[in-house]
Amino acid sequence: MRNTFRQVFHSPRFVTGFVIFIFLLVTLIVYPLVSPGDPLEMIGLGSFFKPGTYISVLDAAGTPAQTLKLPDAADKRLSSMLSESDRVSMLRWLTAVGVPESEIDLQDTSSLLKLWRENYDAKARPKGMTMSDRRFYQRLDEQLESAGSAEALTLMRQDEAGENQEVGRVSGTDYVNVKDVANVRTLPLGTDNFGRDTLKELVSAMGTSIRIGLIAGSIATCIGLLLGLLSGYLGGFVDDLIMFFMNIFTVIPSFVILILITYSIGQAYRGADTVAIVIGLTSWVWTGRSVRSQVISLRNRDHVNLSRLSGHSLMRIILTDILPYIASYVVMAFILQISSGILAEAQLSLLGLGPRTTEVPTLGLMMNWAMLYSAHINGAWWAYFPVILVITLITFSLNLMNTGLDQVFNPTLRD
Amino acid sequence: MKQWKLLSWALAFALALTPVLGAAAETVVELPRNETLYFAGQQWGSVKGWNPLSSDNNNAMALANSGGGSRIIMFETLYMYNMLDGSMTPLLADGDYVWNEDQTEMTVKLKAAAKWSDGTPVTAEDVAYSFDTYVKVGNGLGTGYAPYIDRIEVVDPSTFIIKAKLTEEGKATNPLMLLVFLGDAYIAQKAWIQKVEERTGGDPTAMKLDPGDDVVWSGPYTKYYTDDQRVILVRDDNYWGQDASMWGKLPVPKYLAHAMFADNNAGQVAFAAGQVDVCQQFISNVQDLWLKENLPISTYIPEAPYGICVNMPTAWYNLSKPGLDNVAVRKAIAMAVDYDMIIANAMTNQSPTFEQVPRSLMNPTPGEQAMYDHEAVKDLQWAGNDIEGAKKLLDDAGIVDTDGDGIREYNGQKLSFNACAPNGWTDWMAAMEIVAAAGANIGIEITTLYPEWSVYQTVVTAASQDQYDIFMMWTDSATPAQPWGRMRMLMSSEFNGVEGNWSGNWGHFKNDRLDELVKLIPTVQDRDELVKLYTEAVEIYLTEVPSFSLMYRPDKFHAVNESVWTNYPEEGDGRNIPPLDLTDGYSIAALYDLELVNP
After folding, report:
1. In the CATH scheme, what architecture does the domain B65-193 have?
2. Contact B430 A373 (CB under 8 A)
3. β-strand B416-420 against B470-473: which pairing, if any?
4. Is the predicted pLDDT of residue B28 greater than 70, yes or no?
5. Which of A38, A125, A132, A264 to mutate to probe the B interface, most B CBs <10 Å?
6. Chain A residue closest to B288 (CA)?
């Protein structure tokens, strides 16, 4: 036994797959401890906030400031307010309202702003400008007004009488340390369409999907193993009967059966576990077929015949004389069943036939909602790409482990 | 061997040629981009017919009736409704309609210039015959207006009187519906209807099934080409409306085209690429199209809510479900729902919030908001996300968790409901998720359910509906009969027990006083009295909570891409053209003002 393990852990493929899988499992356990809370809690008012660190503006304004004199601060502020392309756009407006191009110096910010204030009129409709052009200039003007007009901002607080009381000033050289701000929240993968923390949801969904894979894989392997053993060992009528069913299931694509069953169950009864069971019940066929063929090749081996002559019971022969010889194969099949169960859930959910929502996140549901809210068109990659990556990693690691095991146990592949 | 080689070469050549041949076949209906206005989000699936007598043409570009202004590209109505100010601009009609003293009769004149596509004038006979035929064949217009309009009497070829159905006291059953009729009902040609009668033997069902390929129209566009990929209408350069008494000119685009997109995403991609000019689709985070992607795309209003919201998608309670028959449970759920979240996330801010427009029976337009006393119902309106208040309400009503599983019990039964919306209706589905989350916060189990629309509509409109507990449906948009129509839709018990009920009150609410108000309000003309009555109705609605609105929504989504065309209507441009995709009601006026970006 120990020798077997040693062999297995010497296979580089198995080890790579195993490490990835363990890494995912550890994340699954550790991340909720680091970042506790309900993964389905909707925190963002608005959809698809980009990944990053969010700092409370109120708390930052209330935090005592330090002065940092950074040489490029003013330039940075200016370029975030007025980019190169904005300057070119300003040129277009100014020439459209009749300012000679020779008078406009795009690099001289203060004179450009002065010209802009003199010539921009939100109500004007210069010839050749569309509604979207005019609205672009309105936004640009507002941006210049709010950011460019003040060297310092005054903080006011409204007292009970509704009067504004000055409570502080913020100048261009004031900085606060992020550690001092009371409310800072890092959203490493932003938010999804419901304003949920995508990473937290992803980790939780990974757990659900692995559970679905385990349940589906166990059921499929058990059924396949049992039927394969019986039909292979007993032969005759039992074999014919079981093969009859297996053939039916082989001819009809299992995914179609899966769709039909999940649809007819109805969404109200479709919890994550139900979906897992249905996946398991429809995907046992190939395990059954291959176990059967393995058993047939074992059936007439000497030790099995000997056992039979000694009058051992059917149960005992199967358990002690046949099962151990195909155990490694069954383990590999089980691993593949887990990964195909996870994929099947993702496929079903993408079609809107997965587990009913609101209860637990699953990888498939996350992709389904991202697609419904056009994340792929709107460039919100964080809502779907990490999900795809996780699905890939899970199935990749399981498949790697499988091929690793294959190399160890399959004599024809052994180096 | 050589033969094989030859054969494979021939095969490769044929394959290479296929796209070329395919493209050649397509060029037959290739339209000049500078003369074509492309739409998205109106037409799904192939066109079935062009018959104004039928309600089943699946021909959204040509035939789409709406109380808030019908689509008048090919067939025309008497007046054009404008939801911005409630005005009625004469189209086929000439001048204003005239009521008699007690609002039982309405006299309307027709424009002398109004002509059919075959050159004959539009007459009062056509109007009367159209209405009679609609009633006879029982299409949407016929069944919709028969309870309110008795008959249309021809005075002379250009004058007719619409006579209202009278109550026992001799009052019109509902004069408001006569107003709606003016902007809703298409007028069809009598001679053509008679042709259809002739070839079908006058059988109502056969008349409705007629595809109407030889139909006579009066509008500015007519059918040009249609297949399962697209529908194209072409301008009728003999259109009567170029007469000085109407528009004085022809609409600008020569072709109106609509491709049949597979789904919203496909339509949105084409819209962003500039292949579609006017898009009637819900686009989540529509502002990203111009803020982030710098596309020449705009909505009617530059800031949220981006459009004119006149409709109130509502979550209805199934009042026969144990638990939901208790008003405390209904109100608690409604109070706990986070509406700001629904508006920000499900609707991506394309709706005013309930803080901006507190809940009532009225939509956010100033006209409707003025119809009730805001102060009187202030204490009844809830803003949402009030978890503590909802919990207290349930605790006070004695509905508590007795067995410690976190879910409250009512009469010994766990409070567990489903919340339903049709599959694929993204904003409604997301809203239901947020309702379900609110339930979890106050100890009520709510699970979401998204049946396919075909199933959903059958269940919701059935007389006895016991499958869905909380479910989404719409309310009326802006029409001349509002807010009366919406009040009736939300609460009138006249729809209880009706099979195939598309009219409203899907939760089967009943309140005697409210039923009286539904009958009374249309006959009242005094404004102060009306406000008093409407305020009473709002009080009943907010006290009994038979349903609760989740958001405000435009009648039609309206976003335009200015890659080819410009001078679309926008807020504050002084033209008073409503953002209804340049096709519905007075919105069609925009078609006459369009300009090319690069002439």
Report:
1. Alpha-Beta Complex (3.90)
2. yes
3. parallel
4. no
5. A132
6. A378
User: How far B152 CA sits from the closest chain A CA (Å)?
Assistant: 45
The answer, yes or no, to whether residue B440 has pLDDT greater than 70, is yes
Alpha helices by DSSP H, A317-384: 323-350, 363-372, 375-378
* Whether A141 contacts chain B with CB within 8 A: no
Chain B residues in contact with A358 (beta carbon < 8 A): 433, 436-437, 440, 446-448
- Tell me whether residues A268 and B345 touch, CB distance under 8 A: no
Output the pLDDT for position B315. Answer: 93
A46 contacts B348? CB cut-off 8 A: yes
Chain A interface, best mutation among B343, B427, B447, by max A CB count within 10 A: B447
Strand-pair category, B445-449 with B278-279: unpaired
Residue B102 has pLDDT above 90, yes or no: no
Extents of the domains making up chain B: 65-193, 221-307+556-596, 309-554
Q: Please give the average pLDDT of every successive group of 10 residues along chain A, which has 415 residues.
A: 81 91 93 88 88 91 85 77 83 84 80 84 83 89 70 80 82 87 91 91 91 92 91 88 87 78 71 84 87 87 87 86 85 89 85 73 87 85 92 90 82 63
Q: Which CATH superfamily is domain B221-307+556-596 in?
A: Periplasmic binding protein-like II (3.40.190.10)
Residue B1 in this model has a pLDDT that exceeds 70: no
CATH topology of domain B309-554: Dipeptide-binding Protein; domain 3 (3.10.105)
pLDDT, position B459: 87
User: Is A263 part of the contact surface with chain B (CB cutoff 8 Å)?
Assistant: no
CB atoms within 10 A of CB B591: 22
Cα of A348 to nearest chain B Cα, Å = 14
Positive or negative torsion for Cα A162, A164, A170, A175:
negative
Nearest to B448 among A139, A357, A371 (CB): A357
Phi and psi at residue B252, to the nearest 5°: -70, -55
Among residues B580, B584, B555, the alpha carbon closest in space to that of B569 is found at B580
Which residue from A130, A131, A195 is facing B341, i.e. has the nearest CB?
A: A195
Residue A84 carries which side chain, given as an amino acid letter? Answer: E
Whether residue B313 contacts residue B475, with contact meaning beta carbons closer than 8 Å, is answered with yes
Residues of B in contact with A359 (CB under 8 A): 447
* Domains of chain A with bracketed CATH: 2-40+193-409 (1.10.3720.10), 53-186 (no CATH)
Name which of B284, B292, B447 is nearest A373 (Cβ-Cβ).
B284
Report the SS3 class of residue A127.
coil
Q: Do A193 and B447 touch (CB under 8 A)?
A: no
Above 60 in pLDDT, residue B70? yes
Query: A267, B450: Cβ pair inside 8 Å?
Result: yes
Q: What are B544-577's pLDDT values in tens digits? A: 999 999 999 998 899 999 999 999 999 888 888 9
d(CA A265, CA A279): 13
Average pLDDT over chain B, rounded to whole? 87
Residues in A closer than 8 angstroms to B454, CB to CB, are none
From CA B70, how far away is CA B584, in angstroms rounded? 5
Tens digits of per-residue pLDDT, B444-453? 988 888 888 8
* Alpha-carbon gap: B367 to the closest alpha carbon of chain A (Å): 27
Q: What confidence score (pLDDT) does residue A331 get?
A: 87
The distance from CA B503 to its chain's CA centroid, rounded to whole angstroms, is: 13
pLDDT at B46: 84
Across the interface, whether the CB atoms of A374 and B284 are under 8 A apart is answered: yes
- The string of DSSP codes covering B255-267 is EEEEE--SSHHHH
Reported ipTM: the value is 0.80
In this predicted model, what pLDDT tens digit does every residue of B501-516 receive, in sequence order? 888 889 889 999 988 9
- In chain A, the residue whose alpha carbon lies closest to the alpha carbon of B437 is A358
